[in-house]
Specification:
This protein has 136 residues and is of the alpha/beta class. The protein has five helices and five strands, in the order E-H-E-H-E-H-E-H-E-H. It is globular, with a radius of gyration of 14 Å.
């Protein structure tokens, strides 16, 4: 499974990547630390990622903008928010903007890992990978 990470804290980002790649069959294919950079990469590479993990508070902009910009992604692609501010209101807002799941960084990392492991199982079969939509 191919993951793209939008997180502006290098320590958190590196630890997350290391943990995911060690415990789940995930290949991190890129990172961004701003809304604009993350949104641009995800849109330009829409057939090349399976999972995006997005923090809400970024160096510039907001993870909410990234989630909203990717609202109409391929059906097999998943958008996950990972934040220290996963309040009920934030969870609701993220879901309304198109997030598939929201996890709290301080209390729900194990839940994120289980979620990613379950997704990775779906991608064992290449036929289940998202395909590029035709540009008709």
């Amino acid at each position: 499974m191919r993951a793209y990470i939008v997180e502006d804290n290098p320590t958190i980002r590196d630890n997350l990547i290391g943990t995911l790649e060690e415990l789940v069959p995930i290949e991190t294919i890129g990172v961004a630390d701003t809304e604009a950079e993350g949104t641009r990469w995800l849109a330009r590479n829409d057939a090349h990622w399976d999972l995006a993990i997005v923090d809400l508070f970024l160096k510039e902009g907001s993870g909410l903008g990234v989630v909203k910009a990717c609202r109409y992604r391929h059906p097999g692609q998943k958008m996950v928010v990972l934040s220290n501010h996963a309040t009920p209101e934030i969870r609701w807002r993220c879901t309304q903007l198109g997030a598939d799941a929201v996890f709290d960084k301080s209390t729900e990392i194990d839940d994120l890992l289980r979620y990613c492991a379950a997704l990775a199982g779906q991608f064992d079969d290449p036929a289940n990978r998202p395909r590029q939509l035709s540009k008709a």
